[in-house]
Amino acid sequence: MSVDTAHSFTNPRWTPDEEKTEQKIQETCRELPLLVEWACAPDSLLTEEYQRHGGEAMRLGLHNTDLSNPSKVREIVEYLLKVTKSGRRVMLWISLPCGSWCPWHYVTAAQFPWKVQGLIISQQMSRQIVSLVVWMWRKLRETGLADIAFEWPQRCLGWKILELEPLSNELRYECIFDGCCYGLETTKGQELKKTWRVRTSCQALADVLNLRCKGSKHAICRGKEAEQTGFYCELLVKTIVDALVQHFLGETDVADAEEEEEEKTSQPAASSWEVPLQTSGRVWLPENVDVPPVPCVPTVPRGPK
Length: 305
Prior knowledge:
Layout: H1 18-27, E1 34-38, H2 45-52, E2 57-60, H3 70-85, E3 90-94, H4 104-111, H5 116-141, E4 146-153, H6 165-170, E5 173-178, E6 195-200, H7 203-208, H8 223-228, H9 234-249, H10 254-263
Parallel strand pairs: 1-2, 1-3, 3-4
Antiparallel strand pairs: 4-6, 5-6
Helix pairs in contact: 2-9, 3-5
């Protein structure tokens, strides 16, 4: 069984030795940035592919931490600032849950009014997570050693929320692409057109995430098939990682990097290390993060059981 070198946040009681942690950072490969997947699955293909090319990655999601908790986000940022202080770059890949911003929710709300308040609360949670992402980016951007890519479906209504405007306005590059052009299919092998939108500071991603469908028959993207699209397909993942590797290593052929990695098999593989996520129990917001309160919604009688 291979060792997962993605960073873990599963032991909140563990306290690192500062000197050893600093030494570990200094010993890591500096050519590729540390990839941080924000709100991903514990077995995400993006991290797996990045590691295959010799990069190190950190998976963050519901399986190991609460990205809506400001105190925990602050601890993660403090750790990433330490990584950049050592001279290493950080690449943030943000893919937040978008279910609460699906346009179909408004159709459902019109038919079932008692579901409105739950939808608003869910959207408010999403707003807080976005606010924390923006705060994190501002902190890391100041180091000059960080890049970011923020991904949501193109039709996601979350693109229009005020909390995301600072990030959308600042990031120079925009990618709009159709999933079917990157091998996105249903479990039955039918093409899915799902269109994604990515705002990023990395031009290399904008150069490759730009394919649009010229017209073909697609399956309907809904239900379980829509949920599965949250897990990127293999060709899309390979396209993203190849672009990052070529950009940061200057490789014209990613295969060369793979061959070089095979030559280093005699060297011990980089082991994973954990980062503490201790909290005092207080929930607070970092400075400059303004999260509005949940709006008051009139009580609506529930429908018949």
